[in-house]
Amino acid sequence: MTADARTEDRPVAALTAPPPGSGARVVTTRGQRYRRREVLLALAFLFPNLVLLGVFTYRPLLDNFRLSFTSWNIASPTAQYIGFDNYVEWFTSSSSQTVLWNTVVFTGAAVVGSMVLGLALALLLDQKLVGRNAVRSLVFAPFVLAGAAVGVAFQFVFDPTFGLVQDVLGRLGIDAPSFYQDPRWALFMVTTTYVWKNLGYTFVIYLAALQGRRAELDEAAEIDAASTWTKFRRVTWPQLRPATFFLLITVLLNSFQVFDVIHTMTRGGPLGDGTTTMVYQIYQETFVNLRAGYGATVASIMFVALLLITLAQVFLMERGRQK
Amino acid sequence: MTTQSPTTPRPVRGPRLRQARPTSPRRGHRGSRPRRSPLLTVLTGIVLVYSLLPLAWLLINATKTQGDLFTSFGLWFGDSFALFSNIAATVSYDDGIFLRWFANTVLYVVLGAGGATALAVAGGYGLAKFDFPGKRGVFAVVIGAVAVPGTALAVPTFLMFSQMGLTNTPWSVIIPSLISPFGLYLMWTFAAEAIPRELLEAARVDGASELRTFVQICLPLLAPGIVTVLLFTMVATWNNYFLPLIMLKNPDWYPLTLGLNAWNAQAATAGGEAIFNLVITGSVLTIVPLVIAFLFLQRYWQSGLAAGSVKE
């Protein structure tokens, strides 16, 4: 081993700071910016990922746009090109309004609800409490639960004859709303269930951000005898900005795609489309009504909408940071 | 590798991130009189109940017989404690189909989540530690894929597998699970921070092969990140519902999630056998393994996830 002798040289080597691309024993063409060996290695490490991303993400994405201009019964071998007919149908149909409204309510409530509740819990459990670690894990637990299992089990919680909600409200002398007949209450039911499931995620991210915040700022605020609210508003909240941004994007993307809770609890009903969101509509049109072209159209609209929302979020965040 | 060189800042490739290190200054020492608003405490107490009560309900009701389920109060135990007979009935119902679904889920998780993690580790390492032309483009491809909702690709993905004749086989569930853009992103941010570039240079100077450097030096440093990615890909594949629902027709290949839904649908139809206690106990058996995995590996995923999200 000649390593011992070289150890001495290393600090010097680090001081002279070889620019990337030099300082190597690899034979390189003079003037080439990249070391061939590094490029080949990077390719070896990345190749399988790039192939899979191409085949299972980007190619289907393009394919989806192509299919959205066709009329295609998923059981038949051929699709027929029909131009923008599907898009015209979606934007003019009255059921699309319901679907859009359901999606906005569900996603909006999921994002706001789980972020506000998650932050509140993180603030509480950031303090010293007995059994804090156990409580943290319990609060996080719902996030890892299967949405299908949660949906199946929660039907019983909301069951009109023996469910927990009905039972508790009954003891207080209140009639339980009919969660499975009234579309608005059905939407409320699936949304509360999903917020419950997602709460652990926002909580853990906010908690991590709270624990990474800077001690001296808190101390300064305490010396200035700032009120709890002022301290939160001026000291804590600005430091949570990256976490909030990260959550806004990921929670929105995730809740837009919720399918399992809705499918197991209501199958998109009651009254046909009472809890049908855009993702559910994709499934319903493609695999139940067998209108795959129309399903692809809904998917395309959803994708473009999500892209625009995400870009807007990034833009607003960048602008907020520069202020 | 203690190169204290104030004049040359360490070259950091990829994103910078702040990691919660135990040694970093934290406000572990709160003031002697922590002011707390009673209102906030009450509100948070309500949230706490909201987040814990359903879980308690589920566990309690898995101990009830079918009869008790309908007659006793939801948040307390019934007349008889039937947890073990419920479990026995769940795993033996319909010739033990539940165990078959359990085995299918394990198969999909081991191959799907295991493969996705291995690929994410390799890809994240490659992105974080090597220079190559078109790197920014590859970043864009990965970040872009994070933003593509998988459910929006249902129709073309189904078409692709149906053309290959792979629908209704385990491959149609496993192969699409192999790619996890979020895992790749998480691994890349983690590797950029966890592996100092000088360490790689030193290993190369010492003549270690790239493979040996990767396996013996880098993998141990990446362990917390690997556990985090593994846990999250496990959650994704274990709980996967949409993909198997559109791909699989034969109940013999169902994962647990689809199986539960099938039981549930059967119990809800008129004339179907009422197996509500099996549905509830099955739900509990479906969620328990993941909860246990997360409890035991808590310190890994908490730091790993924090590293990925707190990045500025």
The number of helices of chain B is: 13
Helices and strands of chain A: which structural class? mainly alpha
* H and E order of chain A: HHHEEHHHHHHHHHHHH
Reported for the largest beta sheet of chain A, the result is: 2 strands, antiparallel
Would you give the CATH topology of the largest domain in chain B?
MetI-like fold
How many distinct domains of chain B? 2
Helical content of chain B stands at 55-70%
Short description:
Chain B: It is found in: Cell membrane. Chain B: The chain crosses the membrane at residues 39-60, 72-93, 105-127, 139-161, 173-192, 213-238, 274-297. The complex is a heterodimer of chains A (323) and B (312). By secondary structure, chain A is mostly helical.
Topology:
The complex is a heterodimer of chains A (323) and B (312).
Chain A: H1 3-7, H2 10-16, H3 36-67, E1 70-71, E2 80-81, H4 85-92, H5 94-125, H6 132-144, H7 147-157, H8 164-171, H9 183-211, H10 215-223, H11 228-239, H12 241-256, H13 260-265, H14 278-288, H15 292-322
Antiparallel strand pairs in A: 1-2
Chain B: H1 38-61, H2 66-71, H3 83-129, H4 135-147, H5 154-163, H6 171-177, H7 181-194, H8 197-205, H9 210-238, H10 242-247, H11 256-268, H12 276-296, H13 298-309
Helix pairs in contact in B: 3-6, 3-7, 3-9, 3-12, 4-7, 7-9, 7-13, 9-13, 11-12
